[in-house]
Amino acid sequence: MSLVAKDNVTKNVSLAWPLALNSLLVQSMVLVDVMLVAGLGEVSVAGLGLASAILALLIGTQYALANGTQLILARAFGAEDGRKIANSLFIGWIINLGLTLLTSFSLILSIDILLPILVDDLLVAEQASSYLHVSAFMLLASSCAQVMIAFFNGSGKTRLPLYGYGIEIPINILLSWSLIYGHYGLPEMGLQGAAVGSLVAVLIRVLYLSWQLGRQANVSIKFAKQDIKAQQIWRHLVEISPIAANFITLASGVMLHQILFAQLDIYSFAAITLVMPWMQMGAQFVTSWALATSINISQLRGQNQPHLIPGFVRDAVRIILLLGMLLCGIFIAFGESLGWIYPNLAPATLRALEVIAPIYILIPLVRTYNGLCGHSLRALGHSVTVLQIHFVTQWIIGLPYLALMVYWQAPLWAIFGSILLEECLKVYFFRKHLQRELMSLCKPA
After folding, report:
1. What is the structure's pLDDT at 21?
2. Band of the pLDDT at 26, cuts 50, 70, 90?
3. What tens digit of pLDDT does each residue of 279-316 get?
């Protein structure tokens, strides 16, 4: 490996490892709830799965907006433009919190009408409703935190959000467990207790991030408030809209997947619900390498050094393919350990888990490659292309296929395999567009 390649890998590693741990901790919040709630039975697990699908759309929207702001901030840090840094942070808050207020209010008003439409089992709908009524308030705190995380990631200080999650997760586990089952004199709240525990833990993380933000010398919120103009907000929104639309497309697709999976028998749906957080956690762990790559690409663009990007991306691709293979191996071990991880499941649920095992083992290999290509193209200014690829493969092909399989009562492997089908279709398109863009950067001006 050349010295330049080694430098590229070292640079990405310094950003990626805190992002990777961040991703593990983020996904562990959902995983913690699933593992703690598993003792309540399949109805509660299914209710959590339905609620999590809806929350994934809303949190995905927050993450989408923050991710767009993160790339703008990374360019501003690369150019060492203090005014742009402060303005972008404050505008990111305006946009993210504004949309979250709207969606949280809409969720509270519509949830009891929406859930019985999405699932036939009224007990499952009741459990999901109790969880979502509390989680609507958690969304507000999460929105504020997402923008602060974008600031720290864009500046290269990816360890600070990691410390925040390190504080939040133990509190979430202890408080959720106590409230679900009524330990330490606290009320026994069942599934709703998991939501309350998450809410309190997220609020504590927001306080920590706010304290860290106040210690940064390169941002003045007071100055930014006086400097912001409506035209700046509009330009910021226009730039991040394709990125946000792409994440919203994916998040809404995940929600629709879960809604369609909810039409299966309760044991099959419970099996998918138990596996999905592990899949998401694994994907996010590896995607941290892609996020680090996009941050570095944005900083190189801010430094006006685009000629360094092709070699940088090629080195990153090699690493992420190795990480994808490693993740497949981890999921093989996970499949062999399911009886130990979830000891109280019904035999029908365990049989369903065995059926879908080959699919969730193979998915990381293609999903990790697609993630790196997508994040790299966004950082290079081709967010619309990424949106088009995701929309066609998911909404034009993948979801109609899934709906037909559910309608025809196809085998479980054919239904769950819709996720693998989508990812395989994306590989060709992402590879084609990324290679073309990198070749254009190699050409002399």
Report:
1. 63
2. low
3. 877 777 777 777 778 777 877 777 777 777 888 888 88
| Residues shown for the chain | 445
Place of tokens 């501003």: 76
d(CA 385, CA 56): 23
Per-residue confidence at 208, pLDDT binned at 50, 70, 90? Answer: very high
Q: Is 390:425 a contact under the CB 8 Å cutoff?
A: no
Contact 312, 87 (CB under 8 A): no
Residue 16 to residue 286: CA distance in whole angstroms: 9
pTM passes above 0.85: no
Distance CA 197, CA 134 (A): 10
Residue 132 CB-density burial (10 A; 0-12 exposed, 13-18 middle, 19+ buried): buried
345: left (phi over 0), alpha (psi -120 to 50) or beta: beta
Q: Is the dihedral of CA 180, 181, 187, 189 positive or negative?
A: positive
CA dist 276 to 41, 155, 224, Å? 17, 32, 41
Three-state DSSP at 280 gives: helix
What sign does the CA torsion over 283, 284, 288, 294 have? Answer: positive
Q: Extract the tokens encoding 422.
A: 């989508």
Tell me the three-class secondary structure of 306-337, residue by residue: HHHHHHHHHHHHHHHHHHHHHHHHHHHHHHHC
Residue type at position 241: S
CA gap 300, 38 in Å, rounded: 46
CB 103 within 8 A of CB 58: yes
Please check whether residue 60 is in contact with residue 280, taking contact to mean a CB–CB distance below 8 angstroms. no
Tokens 């998040």 — which residue? 251
Q: Residue 1, CB half-sphere, CA atoms under 13 Å: how many?
A: 14
Tokens 């509390």, residue located:
134
How buried is residue 54: exposed, middle or buried, by Cβ count under 10 Å (0-12/13-18/19+)?
A: buried
Please report, in angstroms and rounded to a whole number, the separation of the first and last CA atoms in the chain: 28
Of the candidates 281, 262, 277, the one whose C-alpha atom is nearest the C-alpha of residue 415 is 262
The tokens 């138990």 sit on which residue? 274
What lies within 8 Å, CB to CB, of 192 at 6+ separation is 130, 131, 133, 134, 179
Catalogue the E-assigned strands of 201-250: none
